[in-house]
Amino acid sequence: MNKENLISVSKNVRKNIIEMLYESKSGHPGGSLSCADILTYLYYEKMNINVNKPKWEERDRFVLSKGHAAPALYSVLTEKGFFPKEELKTLRKTGGLLQGHPDSKHVPGVDVSTGSLGQGISNAVGMALGLKAQKSNSKVYVILGDGELQEGLVWEASMAAAHYKLDNLVAIVDFNGLQIDGKNEEVMGINPLDEKFSGFGFNVIKCDGHDFDSIDEAFKKAEEVKGKPSVIIAKTVKGKGVSFMENQAGWHGQAPNKEQTEQAIMEITK
Length: 270
Known about the structure:
Elements: H1 3-24, H2 29-34, H3 36-46, E1 61-64, H4 70-80, H5 119-133, E2 140-145, H6 152-163, E3 169-175, E4 178-179, E5 182-183, H7 184-187, H8 193-199, E6 203-208, H9 212-224, E7 230-235, H10 258-269
Parallel strand pairs: 1-2, 2-3, 3-7, 6-7
Antiparallel strand pairs: 4-5
Helix pairs in contact: 1-3, 1-4, 1-10, 3-4, 3-9, 5-6
C-alpha cells in the first residue's frame, strides 16, 4: 500500500468535491467528505477494475448505496481517468453528464444507479448472488450511510446476504453519526451496530475511516472470511477535512459560497 499516494489522492478528491458543489450551487458535502478516504482506498488499492473497460466482466463491483454522496464517487472516478475532469463542472446541470445521484447508464465506472436509500445494498446482494452463480471471483463492495440503516430494506437485504453465504460481499458503513435532521441517535437510534449485523449473520469489523492503515487492515480481515458476508463499520467525521463543516448536520445538503469554498480548499490542500 502506497499510503502517501492515497493521502495525496484523497486531498484531490476532497478539493474536487468542494469545487463541483460550489459550481453546481447544490449538493451534499458532509457525507461526500466523510467517505472520501474509503472510496480512495477502494479504487486505488483494493478493487480489480479496468479504466479502459468500465464494463469488464471480471471487474469488482461497487455500489454507492448512499447515492447523495455522488460527488465523492464522481471525484474518485475522474481521478482514476474514467472521464475527463472538466465533466465535474456539469454536476446537477441540465444536459450535463453528472446527475445529482449516480447514473449507471451514462457515467463510465458507475455500476448501479442509486439514490433511494436502502436499495443500494439490495442491488449489491443481487450482484453478489449472480457472481456466485457464475462462479466468478469478483467481489462486490457497497458503502451505506449510517442514517440509511434506519431503512428496513437494509436488513432484509442483509438477511438474504447471510442466508446465501455471500462471502464475496463487503458492506462498509460510513458511520459519521449524523443525518439531515441531526444526530442519528436522536432521530432513530441505530446502535449497537456491531451486535445488529452480527445477529444478521455478518462478520463484523471496525476501523477508523480516515486512517489508511486501519482501513487496509479491515479489508484484509474481510478477505480472510469464508461462508458469510462482511461489514466494515468505519468511524468517520461528517465534513472531514473542512473545519467549519466537520460534525455539522447543517452541511448535509448545502453548497458552500465563494468565501467558504476558498477557505475549504485552503484547509484541504495545506
